[in-house]
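Appendix B: complex inputs.
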Amino acid sequence: MDFALFSLILGVLSIIYSGFAFFRVIREDEGNQKMREISHYIRRGADAFLRREMEAVLAATVVLAILILAAIGWQNALSFVVGSLSSAFAGYLGMQTSVRANVRTASRALKSGIKGAFDIAFTGGTIMGTFAIGIALIGISSLYMLFRTPLDIIGYMFGASLISLLVRVGGGIFTKGADIGADLVGKVEAGIPEDDPRNPGVIADNVGDNVGDCAGMGADLFETYAVTLITAMLLGYLLEPIRRALGTMAVTLPLMIGGIAVIATIVSIPFVKLRNPKRIMGAFYNGLIISSIVAIALNAILIYGAGGLETAIVSKAGLMVSIIAGVLVMASMYAFAEYFTSGSYGPVKRIAQRSQTGPAINIISGISSGLFSSTFPVMIIAVAIIAVLLANGGLYYPSVGFYSGVYAVGIAATSMMSMAGMVISVDTFGPITDNAGGIAEMAGLPKEVRDNATDPLDAVGNTTKATTKAYAIASAGLAALSLFIAFVLELPPSELDSLQIFNPLVLVGLFIGAVVPFLFTSRLMEAVDYAAFSMVNEIRRQFREFGILEGKGNPDYEACVDIATRASLKKLLVPALIAAGLPLVVGFLLGPTALSGYMFGAIASGVPTAVWMTTGGAAWDNSKKVIESGLYGGKGSDAHKAAVVGDTVGDAVKDTAGPAVNPLIKVIMTVSVLFAPMIVLIHLL
Amino acid sequence: MDFALFSLILGVLSIIYSGFAFFRVIREDEGNQKMREISHYIRRGADAFLRREMEAVLAATVVLAILILAAIGWQNALSFVVGSLSSAFAGYLGMQTSVRANVRTASRALKSGIKGAFDIAFTGGTIMGTFAIGIALIGISSLYMLFRTPLDIIGYMFGASLISLLVRVGGGIFTKGADIGADLVGKVEAGIPEDDPRNPGVIADNVGDNVGDCAGMGADLFETYAVTLITAMLLGYLLEPIRRALGTMAVTLPLMIGGIAVIATIVSIPFVKLRNPKRIMGAFYNGLIISSIVAIALNAILIYGAGGLETAIVSKAGLMVSIIAGVLVMASMYAFAEYFTSGSYGPVKRIAQRSQTGPAINIISGISSGLFSSTFPVMIIAVAIIAVLLANGGLYYPSVGFYSGVYAVGIAATSMMSMAGMVISVDTFGPITDNAGGIAEMAGLPKEVRDNATDPLDAVGNTTKATTKAYAIASAGLAALSLFIAFVLELPPSELDSLQIFNPLVLVGLFIGAVVPFLFTSRLMEAVDYAAFSMVNEIRRQFREFGILEGKGNPDYEACVDIATRASLKKLLVPALIAAGLPLVVGFLLGPTALSGYMFGAIASGVPTAVWMTTGGAAWDNSKKVIESGLYGGKGSDAHKAAVVGDTVGDAVKDTAGPAVNPLIKVIMTVSVLFAPMIVLIHLL
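Resulting structure:
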């Protein structure tokens, strides 16, 4: 049977499942009048933001499609458009779902408590989980069946990652600008609680949760999934000896491994049930473990069942090691992220303890803990690569083992994608419950609804967000590495001789590439700072002019949404140019040799940058929560005030700057791979 | 004439000059009884710390010397001991000088105002400036005349950089632990002014300025100077075609270019006079500009005067481009550092403005500004390398131009060293004036002494510290790059084939190497956090038990010095092992291929890490000063409180973590180059 056709069918199946999940959520009750009204505000704000963001996305798509059409060819231009629209649509749908699931989760929490609320929120998550992988499978398999070569699908990767970057960055600036701005004036200056409806920034803050966490993470994981699959397909095509040994299967096997995610997800969803409200994370671990087991089993059937996979240079045992390595990397990343970000372990407890000596020491120990944590994912990825290489052909370059080794690394990255559906479902759960809590507060639902249902669910959401980011970064590291090698394989053999690491041009490229994540994250933090500053001024103005706190006037929510929207769109261009433009400048100016250094430099410093920011940020957040639970004086103590400072800094690094490094790396890789033939052409002139 | 002998003579000349400067300082008046007493305390504290640190340093030297003797040979063991003792002695003497110059500066400030104080403080700085380069020249030329091959002097580099790392790290932890601890309890909790003699931590704080800034920066710049010279000598030796073309001169030319620093420094010192107390930085710029002009002129005479430098692959014009490139890099780094750290320009003003919205936004904009700034040094270095390569042989590796190009990059790095004497003199000025201010405060000198003399001098010290760090990092980047290539040239030709950047082992090495600066700085920040926490507890205990604030008892300064000493020595081991041990683990376990990736990964992420931390930290510091000068409410305002938080975080990153990355990179390079033959041997077994 044709693996590509099979993947297409699996993709359609996934979309159908997603539709059923959508109707399961939509038929739920939306709650009382007040809840509907608030939900309506959030939805309208989200629509307003998304409409304008999508205009920018469409404009970028059209311009770039024309450029690709002229420079590369219609095949990649078409792939680009499909990839970019799929990415945009995945983000759009994720958000449309979550703004509907949030109010229904709140309503269920009111009616039947935490178990019911959990059920609706998770079902909401599965809509996104199954839709994202479904649409990716449909797009990639159709394009592959049309062109029969992955070289023509490179545009899809670029489209998916570029749009994911735009949605991530735009959403990240919006959400944290709104969040920090609303908190600084509301909680700190005016002394009103979080999510108080008198705060003009409160709707923008809730819109932001959807815009940043749902649309942003949705587009990001969709992109991770699609790019990883296509990269492994590309390796199967470009690694000559592998293609000769495996034939078409070299290219379609990764597609099939990715397709397994559909079955693994759908089979394991029913196991995610909240039995013990004290162990919410346990329900997710059930789902993830079952999803992993199903994935390993199906992959084993695939590898041992399919004919022609045991050749002189590829072995079934070696491929199975890759599959298992991928699953182990995922498990290690979850354990790693939980250790460094959960309030139950040393690192977070230490930051909480240090907060007693004031905000400065809180910040120092947060940065220190974040930087320290970045060592582990790198080591995990390094060990996985070495293990996969050893099992598949040996460590050394000038040998045939190089080809099977590199292909096996691509397969290991794809194996991580076999659990992608479940990971996305769990992740989308976070912002839905976060919003449900906000709606419960704003609608004045009884305090127990928050205390016993939405708050515990939301706290778990913090952990799932951190673990998902760790998963995304690890898989991005492996996929980017494979893409980097795909880029090298695209170069003419004459260029390969100059790719020695001691070639000064390679070194200069590496040097410049390694500073890009620093430059890029600095611009995002500056943007958050700018957006928050604008929000602060607007909220202060409304308080002053409308007399909201004195009960004289009503807040103008839309003005705040508008400010955050404009700030985020304004600050979108520079990061996008850094990501997609700089590699082309380096490539066309200094040639493919320097560009290869540049690409890897960006991966090597990008992965630890992404990790320190996301785990450090989550650790700050949870160390505040540890203090709020009563330690070191609890809420309102000096330690708590210090922890709030760390939490706010953490917001900017963990929700805006850090996670955007993942699509940054991908955009650098995909734009380079896409334009490689042209760069070589110009360079040889 | 033999360049090596000539350099030796220049080295002796430099030491003699240093001796004269020392006596010029020492014959100055030490001031009144109170001042002598305080100065005595600081000196005793510094001695206590240094004695124990030197014990640790000696122990490390003995153990490693035996290891090198057994593994490499007696020549490198001897070189190692000479290098390591020279480094220790440079740090030791720098500190002994500054603890004598500080009280005399304060005394002169009292008697004859700012101009006299400037004169003594700068003369104190020149002791260190001329001594450091003198002892390096004597050591390197003697060893070279003894062995006649730079391969046997590699040990000197490792010794110099390892000890510099220990002194930097130990001093950095001591100084910031003491500083932050004393400030948190004294200024923030007890509300007494900085340098109030009732604060038990105040002597430790002042000891720290000498330990961190004088001994630390002294050993660091000594190491930068020595390593840069030997690296270029090594390149002249290992680049076969260059050695064939230039003969012995390939090796001795860098030594001679370094030796020019002696004349350039001594000639330009008299020009550093404070004419206008409003333009203190101008006096230094005079010295630096004259030093640069003299260096360029002497280098031109050297290059155009010496016979045999115009060959088929080396050109005099090309070498002059390298010389000028080195000077331009230095000038650009000064301009860069001043723009990003001085209160007169946008970046610092912006952080000050953002401080109005509280400490969190202050931190976010400081990190953002620091990360952003790291782009520029990388670009400056990249442009310089490309220019030097273009002027000396072309950009591409598999060509003869590679050899002349790489050699020319080494010469450019050495050219930066022609101004090293003046740079070190200016830098040592900083801690001397900082201490002089402390002594003036503690001895209760009239307020005008601080306001009109020591405070303005100290403020400039902040800028010179930042510019010196930028200079050190840029030269470290160039030198490390050259050392990296020296490492590659040491490998057998069969290994070179596997050094392609797309070799998975190279990539794994790069990946691990790039995370090392993150890991290393995280440990240093954790150490500062630990030391500060211990200090806070001790100072609180003394306040409580002795009743110091109530005037019932006297503070026990020595107990605080002891706590900071113990904390810094305790936290020395792990960073040292990361720096010197990890490369050996990677080298012996994964082989020279992975190690080469590791080395360059550490450079590529290390340089931006060092930059963001040092410039970001200085920007925080000066944004606080901007507010203290009266902006946004001035001292005591909310904006000021927010800026104090940023300043404290900045202390840890700019004086401990950031600057230690420079010796970190060097230790990684030198230990790898030193052990390369053995790593290759084991690997080929």
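Chain B touches chain A through 89 residues (CB under 8 Å).
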